[in-house]
Amino acid sequence: MSFHPLMPYGEGWHKSDRIVAAEGQPFAFTPDRVRQLEEICGKYPPDRRKSAVLAALYFVQEQQGYLTANAMRHVAEFLRITPAEVEDVATYYVMFYRAPVGRYVLQVCRTLSCALGGAERVVEALSQKLGIKVGETDASGLFTLMEFECLGACDRAPVVMVNNEYWHERLTPENCSKFVDDIKVRGEAALSGCYLKVEN
Amino acid sequence: MEPVLTKYVREPNSFELDFFLTHDGYQGLKKALAMQPNDVIEMVKASGLRGRGGAGFPTGMKWQFVDKKTPNPRYIACNADESEPGTFKDHLLMERNPHLMFEGCLIGCWAIGAKVAYIYIRGEFYHVQKILEDQLAKAYAKGYAGKNVMGSGWDCDIVLHRGAGAYEAGEETALIESLEGKRAQPRIKPPFPAVSGLYNCPTAVNNVETLCNLPSILTNGAEWFARLGPEKNGGPKLFCISGHVKKPGVYEASMNTTLQDLIFNYAGGIRDGHRLKAVIPGGSSVPILMPDQLDVPASFDAVQKAGSMLGSAGIIVMDETTCMVWVAKNLMHFYAHESCGKCTPCREGGDWLYKILDRIERGEGEVRDLDLLTSVSNNIAGKTLCAFGDAAATPPLTTLKNFRAEYEAHIREGRCPIPADWRAGTALAAAH
Q1: A 102-161 residues with CB below 8 A of B?
Q2: Of B36, B176, B266, B310, which has the fewest Cβ atoms less than 10 A away?
Q3: Burial (CB count within 10 angstroms: exposed 0-12, middle 13-18, buried 19+), residue B109
Q4: Cβ distance of B122 and A155 shorter than 8 Å
């Protein structure tokens, strides 16, 4: 029942897309990551370990692919903050995954300059090639398709980021099929990168 | 104007410390360290340097406001969270000229008495961050950062801090919140960061390009800098030109250069067979300019006089195939998605605006939706803690003002009257 005649509850207006993280396997950082994370904490004042929370969450993602409740509790313990503080951050920033993703997460820039350069059709073509909608992972578990807001490389539109880290510039709808096939064979090496071209 | 910031970016090794040192690198810092911190601030004030992040606030003044009497530490926070749609200048500066930013950070720290500069780089720029990490280690090893900077006996650290995808982190108090390990949401001002910023200590938040201008001011003098552009708009400026132009890219020019010149000469003009329809001159948050409004210098003051803002100098160019309702819808998706959720008008209103624009664009809008758009927009602008609210209200308001007939055509015809072949649905429709 709605308290407001113009805004019915349910579909659309009041639907929350919050994903409560799964419990997951027991989690602890590897000794190497513990050392690196302590080093990072050392760059902030001693009572401000919380500043390293983004770095810690990236480490979780590196270690097990996505964030789980167990891992977030471990991060909280490590940084001496509450699990709620960790979840607060983990649910805010778009680069953290709270559910399993494919081996390659294709993050297509959808904002104006890329869209003027055909990003909508790139998404369409990738979606058709992989047989999935935006936000889904394909049956093989290799690819997840995502749309991202402005990636900050508008002169190389449309750009695609892969796994929060690798970039491919000027992807055309016509090249999408080959792009996917290339990644299957050569992995990240198939990507163009996003650097200013200079004459060597 | 001879490039200052991007002079060497096309040299293969321009990002290396060795290259930088043989091309006047760290000479500005050397000069600064021989001066009293307050004299450095006075010099930057005299140069008229204005912040390059979007607001155009005088940098020297920002530094002067930093509380120098406090027993607490002071900080420089370098804003490398470049995420205003249409902006990609800091991306280039950091990738090709990282030491210029480090030198700027150190000069800033010396001027305000800080011992640490935190560089907040957006999470998406990890490929750039790896270059920065590598070069920062070299700067430390050669004594240009860390203990006893350049043999002066002064210690100063530079710390790289990776964000994780949030447009709002570019707002200065939200950036500070994010540095503290919280959600990137703005704080109530005052107190301003200059009094109570990072860890409640006095903090100056400066954009990458702003800091990169400091070394040349120190080496060449305030007067040289001021004379490079119109009054109160001195120095070199990076312009990011994207969209329907022949040669999109970053161009360095004086702020005497007109927008017309930037688009038609620097960026090579509109792609073949098409004509200019509209320009967003300063990143997606500013009002549109029409083709007959472009004969103005691309300076903070002149663009404002023309009815828009220079903002982050992200110039987005659109040709006649662009549906302006679609533009507003695309940008509204951005603002609705990126709203940090702290202030109700922006959090709820952004979603409303997107939904209204979406139905109009699909041809399902009604005439009364146009008044609703205006009313919701006006209830966001000026009613939020940070400038995001004003930015979010801009796409519908500016497109309605300049292209009301297009909105009416959508509603009358029950479809988008300007479908372009580069938009979704078109390829599939053609195949059927």
Answers
A1: 110-113, 115-118, 120-121, 123-125, 148-157, 161
A2: B36
A3: buried
A4: no
Q: Is A43 on the interface with B (CB under 8 A)?
A: yes
Q: What is the CATH number of domain A1-100?
A: 1.10.10.1590
Homologous superfamily of domain range A104-190: Glutaredoxin (3.40.30.10)
Q: Which of residues 234-273 of B touch A (CB under 8 A)?
A: 240-244, 248-250
Distance separating alpha carbons of residues A191 and A169, to the nearest angstrom = 8
Contacting residues of B for A88, CB less than 8 Å apart: 182-183
Domain extents in chain A = 1-100, 104-190
- With an 8 Å Cβ cutoff, are A199 and B84 in contact? no
In chain B, CATH 1.20.1440.230 sits at: 324-413
Q: What is the spatial distance between Cα A114 and Cα B138, in angstroms, rounded to a whole number?
A: 35
CATH 3.10.20.600 fits B236-319, yes or no: yes
Which chain A residues are Cβ-neighbours of B330 within 8 angstroms? Answer: 110-112, 115
Taking the alpha carbons at both ends of chain A, their separation in whole angstroms is 67
List residues bridging with B117 in a β-sheet: B76, B158
CA distance B294 to B136: 41
pTM of the model as a whole: 0.94
In a mutagenesis test of the A interface, which of B15, B88, B332 is the best target, namely the one with the most A β-carbons within 10 Å?
B88
Mutate to test the interface with B, among A16, A18, A155 (most CBs of B within 10 A): A155
Nearest-Cα residue of chain A relative to residue B6 = A196
Residue in B164, B167, B199 nearest the CB of A45: B199
Phi, psi angle pair for B136, to nearest 5°:
-65, -40
The answer to whether domain B17-227 has CATH 3.60.40.10 is no
B324-413: which CATH number, 1.20.1440.230, 3.40.50.720, 3.40.120.10, 2.30.42.10? Answer: 1.20.1440.230
Q: Which of B150, B76, B84 is nearest to B113 (CA)?
A: B76
Closest CA to B213 of B103, B329, B318: B103
Q: pLDDT tens digits for chain A (200 residues)?
A: 445 555 555 555 555 556 678 899 999 999 999 999 999 999 999 999 999 999 999 999 999 999 999 999 999 999 999 999 999 999 999 999 999 999 999 999 999 999 999 999 999 999 999 999 999 999 999 999 999 999 999 999 999 999 999 999 999 999 999 999 999 999 999 999 999 887 65
Which of B401, B403, B362 has the alpha carbon at shortest distance from B378? B401
- What's the rounded Cα separation, in Å, for the pair B283 and B286? 6
Rounded Cα distance between B235 and A168, Å, is 33
Domains A1-100 and A104-190 share a fold: no
Regarding an ipTM greater than 0.85, the answer is: yes
Burial of residue A132 (CB within 10 Å: 0-12, 13-18, 19+) is middle
Is A116 close to B331, i.e. CB distance below 8 A?
no
Neighbours of B432 (CB within 10 A): 4
Between A and B, how many residue pairs show a Cβ–Cβ distance under 8 A? Answer: 178
CB contact under 8 A, B12 and A198: yes
DSSP string, B14-58: TTSHHHHHTTTTTHHHHHHHTS-HHHHHHHHHHHT-B-TTTT--B
